[in-house]
Amino acid sequence: MNLDKNDERILKNLLVDARLSARQLGLKLGMSTVTILSRIKKLEKEKVIKGYTALIDHEKLGYTLTAIIEIIAKKDKIIDIETELAKIENVCGVYDITGNTDTLVIAKFKSRNELSEFVKGIASIQNIENTITHVVLNTAKEDFRLA
């Protein structure tokens, strides 16, 4: 799907505030409400917009630990392992990457004990050969919006 400048402007505004109404977007962007609605519907149909969500402060919910876990797996089982890892509630991201590591997992935890249980649990998953866990000390930026 080819996005034009108006589609990009709509997306950038929705990334900043997904609660904006079509009317508010139209006024802000100098477009009609009907045009905004039809463009949003098209972006949703094409799965450019996958859904709408709130940005939350995980620490305020008690998730004070962020871990980045490198996983080395048996080569023919990487996709299966990534699919299994993606189902785990604490996991925020699962990435199939290049380099010496096969998969990178980003996950959040409420305690060191919870992180320890998680790491021990995934290390025991069949076909995972090794894990390397990094604990995040400080977060300078954590925002996946490209606005």
From TrEMBL:
What's in the keyword line of the UniProt record?
DNA-binding, Transcription, Transcription regulation
According to its UniProt record, what is one Pfam family this protein matches? HTH_24
One GO molecular function term of this record is: sequence-specific DNA binding
Question: Does the entry feature the keyword DNA-binding, yes or no?
Answer: yes
GO biological process annotations for this chain's record? response to amino acid
Q: Where is the HTH asnC-type domain?
A: 3-64
A Gene Ontology term for the protein's cellular component: cytosol
Top-level taxon in the UniProt lineage: Archaea
The protein's name is Transcriptional regulator, AsnC family
- What organism is this sequence from? Nitrosarchaeum koreense MY1
Organism classification: Archaea, Nitrososphaerota, Nitrososphaeria, Nitrosopumilales, Nitrosopumilaceae
